[in-house]
Amino acid sequence: MFLRSLSVLPALAGLSGVSVHHLLYRHGEWDLKGVDMAIFYIVLTLGLVALQYSSILPATEVLQRPNWALDIVKYHILGVYTSMLLYRAAFHRLNRFPGPFLARLSNFYVTSLAAKKLRLFEETEKLHKKHGDYVRIGPTELSIRDPAAVKPIYGSSAKVSKGVWYTCSEPRLSLETVRDKKVHAMQRKVWDHGFSLQALEDYEPRLSYYATQLLNAIDSRLGQSMNMTQWFTYCSFDVMGDLAFGKGFNMLAEAKDQYFLTQLRGNMKAIGLTSHLSWIFPFFKRIPGLNVEYLKNIQWLGEQVDMRINNPPDRPDIFSWVLHGYEKGPKTKQDYANLTCDAELICVAGSDTTSATMTNMFFHLAKDHALYKTLQAELDALKDLTQESLKGVKLLEAVINETLRLHPAVPSGLQRLTPPEGLQINDTYIPGDVTVCIPMHTLFRDERVFAQPTEFIPERWTTRSELVKDPSAFFPFGGGSYVCAGKQLAFMEIRRVLAEILTRYNITFAPDHSDDAFLDDTVDAFTVVPGPLKLIFQRR
């Protein structure tokens, strides 16, 4: 009699959803399985509908119910989401951490914050001011502002692993997105050859070549307003394109965006918006119609890599070392896909971050005439502008560090996943398999770490060390085994470009420049993208 009741069908379907949530979906990572799950439920629905209209099943009161097949799927899914929301709201192991209530329920909350102005770092800072050092910003995610958390999360002996965000490049993997620690360590050894002291010396002629192109562009526009955000981007991308594909993108020469930059800007903004919805990435890669741009980009990268392989450059580049590692392996289809992903990483990681730092640095130099003149005088005193000479200019290093402090290249921070046994940070215990992140923008402006934290004071890195209260909490390039491999190359490019410009030109803001507009137009697209910086150059 029970099985013949009309009410039993929704109840059983709902109960199955609750059971599946607790026994299956609560365990492990499901972010890469979204498309497969969608296909499963579509096939299940179609199968049940076909079964409903067949004569296979006996006629019962329950099976005479209109649309019983759709009801099974509907109430099953309702059971899944009801169970999930109740669990997250009332019973989750992170419920003792403060934060907005809606953040408990779904990552759509933090995504809505990112969508406001693409300035998630700003919204995260507001949450920390309201809720404290540990804020729950998602169902299984904490944002952490505690200086004591830096070492256990980003230190050399940290037990954490990379967070689920790093699945964004799947099924392709690069040095940045590979999550397996052993595989990463093996790849890192290959990459480190490409950033050795000797390798960096080999890259210096390329830096000189593109720095000269930038200077030529400035010379032809003396006295005119120049959007230096754009020009520094062109310079960095041309440099890294040369080091990845054996040739630049000709953006400096042609004074315009090229395909790769246009495509990257769109992708990075999408990633910045959906960085907490990792499950959505596979839909834009596997669903026909949605994956048109993705497939176009993969094809373009493959063409560039093939061209680079078939036309090796006269001078070694970063890709030479990555390619050497590839050629020593079995050269599977996956290996080739990973090779194209590494080539893309060389371009992106070494260009976006470097150009943003140069842009923000010149913003502060243009604001502080005395600082500009002092640094100019120190550079004038050098016998040449080689890296060996530039490294000795302490004020130059201080200006770079202070820029990275106030304007970190990855302002919202780098995701990590706590180990299964959890993580103890002083008196705070964080359960295992929880996504954690320290927003650099927020921590680097914390008074416990830096005195006068919102002021641009390069001397804190030279003669006023008392303004740096906790140097261990400053990690603009990440830390531990995952520290940025290209850090020294970035410093090389920044030093050289800045020195070439300061020794030749005086700068002022263009009449239509606005400090507020420049800062407000900065967006968080995982890496920071500054607003237009409009400067006027005059020969000294």
From TrEMBL:
Binding locations of heme: C484
Entry annotated with the keyword Glycoprotein: no
Organism superkingdom: Eukaryota
CDD domains the record matches: CYP67-like
GO molecular function ontology, one term from the record: monooxygenase activity
Bilayer-crossing regions: 37-56, 68-87
Cofactor section: heme
Annotated SUPFAM superfamilies: Cytochrome P450 (SSF48264)
Keyword field: Heme, Iron, Membrane, Metal-binding, Monooxygenase, Oxidoreductase, Transmembrane, Transmembrane helix
UniProt keyword Membrane, yes or no: yes
PANTHER family noted in UniProt: CYTOCHROME P450 (PTHR24305), P450, PUTATIVE (EUROFUNG)-RELATED (PTHR24305:SF187)
Similarity field: Belongs to the cytochrome P450 family.
Protein name, UniProt field: Putative cytochrome P450 oxidoreductase
Species lineage: Eukaryota, Fungi, Dikarya, Ascomycota, Pezizomycotina
